[in-house]
């Protein structure tokens, strides 16, 4: 059984035990969060009806806070003496899917 869930602004395919990295989620490591299911697949049964998905739950546990790779932004304009250097690291959260229930 697996589900397609909305996690961190994207859609992810998850099954029980999967560990995935999503945009930052508020909470401490060990806390439980609910993910919004968009599609459930159990063998040959595919569930996409909104009323059935409203009752379905996908629970996950926060494993740890993480950071993405460093991105370097450089701007340069020739002959004007303008240059600017900036960096960014995205705040992420690693979560583990603990249960999928219809």
Keywords:
single chain, 102 residues, mainly beta, seven-stranded antiparallel sheet, two-stranded antiparallel sheet, 6% helix
Order of helices and strands: EEEEEHEEEE
Rg calc: 19 Å
- Alpha plus pi helix count: 1
* Helical content band: under 10%
Major sheet summary line: 7 strands, antiparallel
Low-confidence stretches: none
Structural class comes to mainly beta
Arithmetic mean of pLDDT? 94
Question: Would you write up a description of this structure?
Answer:
By secondary structure, the protein is mostly beta strands. It has one helix and nine strands. Strands 1, 2, 3, 4, 5, 6 and 9 form a seven-stranded antiparallel sheet that branches. The longest helix is centred in the middle third of the chain and has 6 residues, at 50-55. The protein starts with a strand and ends with a strand.
Quickly describe the structure.
With 102 residues, this protein is mostly beta strands.
Strand and helix map with partners:
Blueprint: E1 2-7, E2 10-14, E3 19-23, E4 32-42, E5 45-47, H1 50-55, E6 57-67, E7 71-77, E8 82-88, E9 91-101
Antiparallel strand pairs: 1-2, 1-4, 3-9, 4-5, 4-6, 6-9, 7-8
